[in-house]
Amino acid sequence: MTTQTPRIALIEDNDDLREELVFFLKSRGSDVWGASSAEDFWKRLHRNAVDIVLVDLGLPGEDGFSVIEYLNEMSGFGLIVVSARGGQPERLRGLTLGADIYMVKPVNFARLAEEIDKLWARIQGDGASDGTALDTAPPQKWSLDASGSCLIDPAGKALRLTAQEFALLQILYRNPSQVYAKEILHDQLFEYDEHPETHRVDVILSRLRKKAREQHFRLPIRAIFGKGVVFIDS
Asked: Tens of pLDDT along 42-79?
């Protein structure tokens, strides 16, 4: 059963920022609660249902990466990183562990609200915020191997991936049949830009396709003209 607004939990050890975010998100009609640490979050999670979790990485005790990884294994949660760590290694690690969105502080509250709405639409199967949902889902036997940084087809053949290629496929693979606009992919892979240079996404896709052709590997991704890119078996 879905609701009009998501239930949100925020894990942030900065008291002022946590209070500001909780107040802002509640003003938008969401049911929101905050936790100052991962330990506090786990205790409260058992008593408070959540749809989307906002996670800082630099937490006291258990860090945000561990929280993301565990929540992703539990499934059923939308995950947004909100962190001061804006480097590519941290961004890649966060997305690889299961984060849906990675945002770097200081965060524009209006943009955060937009990203939450887009994620909530995807969770509900709406998809109207990012693109068009297709009816055909990719086969479950496709897999991404983080330890070997490769994509494995249903026959067991592997295609080695660069860090950026893996991060791109991780985003697409996590939401099969969801068409992602290149602007959205840019924001996920690189820092948010009011005027994103989507050619950077094109370069990654071009190199990935060239590599696949050379190795006679069929990529399960398709470009939808005027809409974006989707992970699909066809």
From this structure: 999 888 889 999 999 999 999 999 999 888 878 788 99
**DSSP structure class, residue 33:** E
User: Residue written as tokens 């990675």?
Assistant: 102
Nearest one of 205, 229, 188, 182 to 88, comparing CA atoms: 188
If you search the block for the tokens 């887009």, which residue do you land on? 118
Spatial neighbors of 228 by CB under 8 A, at least 6 apart, are: 130, 131, 179, 180, 181, 182, 184, 185
Q: In DSSP terms, which residues pair with 82 in a beta bridge?
A: 103
Q: Which amino acid is at 195?
A: H
User: Which pair of structure tokens corresponds to residue 147?
Assistant: 């330890």
* pTM score above 0.70: no
79, 53 contact by CB (below 8 A): yes
Q: Is 83 helix (H, G, I), strand (E, B) or coil?
A: strand
Considering the segment(s) 7-123 as one domain, its CATH architecture is 3-Layer(aba) Sandwich (3.40)
Per CATH, which fold does 143-231 belong to? Arc Repressor Mutant, subunit A (1.10.10)
